[in-house]
Amino acid sequence: MADLFAVLDEVLELVPTGDPEQFRACCPFHSDMHPSLYIHLGKGVWYCFGCQEGGTMTTLLRRLGIEATERSSEMKQPILLQILQDAQQCFKSTLVLHRVARYYLQKTNRERFCNVFGLGFCDPQRLRASLSTKYTDEQLVQAGLQARSGQVFLANRITIPIYDINKRLVAFAGRALSDNVRPKYLNTPNTALYQKRHILYGAHLATDLIKTQRQLGKKPVLLWLVEGYFDAMHLLAAGIPAVALCGTALSINQLRWLTSLPVTICLALDPDPAGLTRALEIFLTLRVYGVETAVCSLPDGKDVDQCDPKWLQSRVVHDATRALAHLLFHTSYPPMKLARFFMRLPRRDRSELYRALLTYSPDYAAAVSQAIRALRPRQRRVPKSGITLAELLLSAVAKGIISQQELPRDFPDQLPQALRGIGKHLLSGEPLSEKDAKTLARLLASPLEVSGRALLAAWKVEQARRAVIRILEEAKTAPEETLPALEQRFLEADMALRQALAERDAAIATDDFLAALDF
Ligand SMILES: [Zn+2]
Known about the structure:
Number of helices: 23
Number of strands: 14
CATH topology of the largest domain: Dna Topoisomerase Vi A Subunit, Chain: A, domain 2
Bound molecules: zinc ion
Shape: elongated
CATH architecture of the largest domain: 3-Layer(aba) Sandwich
Largest sheet: 5 strands, antiparallel
Number of domains: 4
Radius of gyration: 29 Å
């Protein structure tokens, strides 16, 4: 499967959770009003809290009726890439000859981008003349250059080549020569190579710049998230890592890429109400993922590419509380929508950002907390209670909160029978049964706000207590002559239990949450 994520997102519209590998969706197997189906892509398991179905990715795909077919279109990829390369050559050579286009670029101070970013111009006659001898019409359609009617998509526009993260030329955008032509920007359509909503313009260049800045020891490295192609070019040309959204809402695939980078994302979208609202939503979404964020406060009416990059860098608000207050100040965001974001934020962020709300407006803050209270009961539908200590511990191991090395050697054998398969899978990679996959997915999706140290301590107490009880049971029926040895074992076990209890108390002292759970 080329990209399981993309395939599932297409059918289920995945919603992010706090874990970058885990997503929620409305369950297609029962009537589900809000997402109760959890999918953990990293572990390849799924579980629905509504209908309690679950298992491995294989069963999910089968039940969704998705088969690993339709690979045939990908066979054509090399030729599509070649067609786009040839088109790029043609666009570039056309631009050199096209005085009106060159004049437009000069006038808008964009001529400086021509060579670095490969700008060109699309003259439909020239394009067809240069490609139609080598390729069939059908191939040009497949490459996204023309419609079946023969109409060339980017006719009479400045062309901007779009690369994917692997530095392959996969599509073009076209800018009209006049602001009176609508739309101002146009993209070649989605093809086997290119899905608009999954690509961030400039990502292939930004990645290199991020690497360089990290090697130079720069901290933090900022990746600028901007609105348009020329905004990104403007910053990239100044050596600043930047990517452009180009009018799309941030897709989960883009999010996944952003969250995988060792950077702080600096939002610098257009300073109009629509742009700021989007900035606010992206800001909160990134926080939900645990990504560091900053905001560049642009003055009214100024876009990124009209500002000096040095000056822009001086306008960055790093402090999250102030950044959020800034965004709220410039938007009128409904408290209910903000509450939904807030509930998904990591704990430390929640209180910090709530302070931002108070600074912004105590009334607004009150409205948000009221909205959170109104939303809470529905959230509780995810069964939280009834989870055993063994399950909690396994869940912590699966989530990487507790490493394998920290576990007792005989850990899988200490587990109840029903969980032993999962223990063996996590510790030694033994294959998962469908039933175990379902349980594992449920554990991964269950909230866990307990420290690993405290959990392990609680687990050791339980094991030590069991050992003591076992010896006492044994003593009931043991022959007289074995009693001294048993007593010795009892003393050792009792000592181990005391030690475990002391360790647990030390761990709990630093973990109010576990104390509240009363283990
Ligand atoms: Zn369901």
